[in-house]
Amino acid sequence: MTELTELLLADSVGLVTPQILRFDDPLPLDCGRTLASYDLIYETYGELNAARSNAVLICHALSGDHHAAGYHSAKDRKPGWWDSCIGPGKPFDTRHFFVVSVNNLGGCKGSTGPTTINPATGQPYGPDFPIVTVKDWVRSQARLADHLGVKQWAAVIGGSLGGMQVLQWSIDYPARIRHALVIAAAPKLSAQNIAFNEVARQAIMSDPDFHAGHYYAHDVIPRRGLMLARMLGHITYLSDDLMRAKFGRELREGKLNFGFDVEFQVESYLRYQGRAFVERFDANTYLLMTKALDYFDPASDYGHDLSAALQGVTASFLVVAFTGDWRFAPARSREIVRALLDGDKDVSYAEIEANEGHDAFLMPIPRYMEVLDAFMRRVAAEGGL
Amino acid sequence: MTELTELLLADSVGLVTPQILRFDDPLPLDCGRTLASYDLIYETYGELNAARSNAVLICHALSGDHHAAGYHSAKDRKPGWWDSCIGPGKPFDTRHFFVVSVNNLGGCKGSTGPTTINPATGQPYGPDFPIVTVKDWVRSQARLADHLGVKQWAAVIGGSLGGMQVLQWSIDYPARIRHALVIAAAPKLSAQNIAFNEVARQAIMSDPDFHAGHYYAHDVIPRRGLMLARMLGHITYLSDDLMRAKFGRELREGKLNFGFDVEFQVESYLRYQGRAFVERFDANTYLLMTKALDYFDPASDYGHDLSAALQGVTASFLVVAFTGDWRFAPARSREIVRALLDGDKDVSYAEIEANEGHDAFLMPIPRYMEVLDAFMRRVAAEGGL
């Protein structure tokens, strides 16, 4: 994608420009601390209608950001991370919807986070940035909605950690969300999920270049640790089946070398993914995102009863899971569906046959696209859009 | 276990003393190099009968060693790693069998490996120790058998990487093995298995204290990397179910602390396991063991046809798998069983209901013990023992 002509493709949102919004209203956080002021960076695609009734919010996952669709410049090699779903004629159809995508607090792509200068010290927040929760994010997203004049989202949408934000929206602001689209998520992490996050965190924190999180001052980054964390993450994003299909036991040079350099294709793939990630992501942000995942457990405030946690929701739900996802397996999505049904809530559930693993939620799998499309047509129809 | 009286328990092999055997006959290795001389450390339990027909060989897994049963001193807090199965009245009954357990080449518990002084340099082999394969191990074990006067093992037995050695024995020395007991193994690693090993290796090799494997000379060990490797390993040894039952989302202090110290019990468990391992295991050995796993693929010499690889075997097999094992799932064991059946080999298969994960093979699960016991009674009966 280097030609301007490509940007003019009928189904692309084309060139987009992120906006930064400054909030000077202090934000109280779950950890007990308060952010006196903060920035949120976001993008929008499509136009808000006069009734302000066609806005949908996209919530991003662990390593995502506000750049969900289109291109920042004609030189971009890749579009935003969910370009397959956002654009004219795509499921989140920008001819009907005003799509909003925001980088969460604690992020490293423009919203206030560890890499931001802390006004109190004149240095980057680094490890002093407060641990933020899914609930905190939703609170900050609600303020963005206020600013945009969106009283009620036509839909709030997200996969993985993004799906957890959707659930939280439906609980915390039931009147502000008409439809909820929860994809490849879970109502809380399992011990195994937490264990993988913990190994990733230890990899980062034990890297001598981490300097207790103050690596910016040392002009280094915990490259080795962040790379390991990402490699490990990738194993959990792909299914065993997909890895078999993609790499099998293929040897890079066709033979064993009896050494510790890359031999199997899968090793090459993981090292590449790890190295690329280090160039684009901040280690302190990665730590925060994994903690937000670990802490997410909306039922914990309701005697560990998810049905009770969801008792007040009024949104219509679509819950989507993928058969090959072992990070958040379909059984985890079904827990959400069951809890919603317990309360006679409006919920549909789609289990998509896909061997792509957890990452399937980012891919244009035909059956998945059809399901999203059908749901969003309903969102549009019910909203008279 | 600190009281001498406990050592006298009727079902323990009691105090044992390892023996070291020096081989000066050069050993050719799969990598093309040759070990001019080497030591093997081993233990034996029970007595070799006059006909030398009651010997069984125990092959250890990734982090195992020759100390499979009994105690080295009255102060030992724990017995050998498979004490649940080896002893008078236990499945590998030392009243009938002469049980042999050897630390594999490349190990760090007394057999020649990276921590051994390389006679050519006067320094530890370190990273210059050759990458050894399952086939190499079996070749060295055959020489140990020669020394012990064992022409044919009544049985060769092992779990996980140990089970792979059993398979290799049955292929390379069909006349020297009457029964083969392959537990929680696989005919080769999957791409996902290799991926986990690769992350573990990268954790070790990227630790600044690794010094390209020459850390002995720097008087340090790659503690952080080895700890990460072990933490990651542990996730794959336990099932998601067992982790849920054992740790759930239990918080160590009963509440979230909004910090990066240990919060969830599962984090505490993993860090403890990681730290303990660093004190007892060598990082270069860990690297070698993971490579032996990655390389194991006996079918590769037979056009990737496992049935063809097993065509010459004559041993009677028992293959055991555990339902909760996702590292080497029952489907992997069934590949072995199917290939044996293709060649009309004598094979029994037991799939044990167990939620303990891969580590189940080390645990005294009643149904599993019964299966081992029944098989070993048959081994004894057929051998007139």
Question: How does this model look, in words?
Answer:
The structure is a homodimer of 385-residue chains. Chain A has eleven helices and ten strands. Chain A has 385 residues and is an alpha/beta fold. The first copy, chain A, has an eight-stranded mixed sheet with strand order 1-4-6-5-7-8-9-10, sandwiched between helices. In chain A, helix 4 runs antiparallel to helix 5 and helix 5 (223-237) packs across helix 7 (265-280). The radius of gyration of chain A is 21 Å and the shape is globular. The two termini of chain A are 32 Å apart. At the A-B interface, helix 4, helix 5, helix 6, helix 7 and helix 8 of A face helix 4, helix 5, helix 6, helix 7 and helix 8 of B.
Task: Outline the fold blueprint.
The structure is a homodimer of 385-residue chains.
Chain A: H1 4-7, E1 19-23, E2 27-28, E3 34-35, E4 38-45, E5 55-59, E6 98-102, H2 134-148, E7 155-159, H3 161-172, E8 179-183, H4 191-205, H5 223-237, H6 240-246, H7 265-280, H8 283-295, H9 306-309, E9 316-322, H10 330-342, E10 347-352, H11 366-382
Parallel strand pairs in A: 5-6, 5-7, 7-8, 8-9, 9-10
Antiparallel strand pairs in A: 1-4, 2-3, 4-6
